[in-house]
């Protein structure tokens, strides 16, 4: 009887391990799909009805911010976020630099 119990424990442990591995794979897959969906939506966001600027004047950058909107009277750094997502540390730093008016224009000549 002890051998049967030991074999049963081994089989149950193996099944649990296999299920754990499969669940981990699904979580990674879901996370990467969610990330891919988010990145795709960022590229289409300027064409949504709610977007208040001219989408033809938006330039997608991708990182560290999604893009720059070139309106006739201003330039706007744009970061698209879904639901409860938050700015990253780098994005907050960029936002703070803009608020502190530490944004400049430089011309670089290659001669």
Can you give the mean pLDDT? 86
Gyration radius, in Å: 25 Å
Spatially, the strands of the biggest sheet line up as 1-2-3
Please count the helical segments: 2
- Tell me roughly what share of residues is in helical segments: 40-55%
SSE run: HEEEH
- The amount of beta strand, in percent, is 5-15%
Note the overall shape.
elongated
N- and C-termini, Cα separation: 87 Å
How would you characterize the largest beta sheet? Answer: 3 strands, antiparallel
In the predicted model, the low-confidence regions spanning at least 5 consecutive residues are: none
Secondary structure class reads mainly alpha
Number of strands: 3
Tally of discrete structural domains: 1
Summarize the structure in words.
The termini are far apart. 49% of the residues lie in helices and 10% in strands. The longest helix is centred in the N-terminal third of the chain and has 43 residues, at 2-44. β1 and β2 form a beta hairpin. By secondary structure, it is mainly alpha-helical. The model has no long low-confidence stretch (mean pLDDT 86).
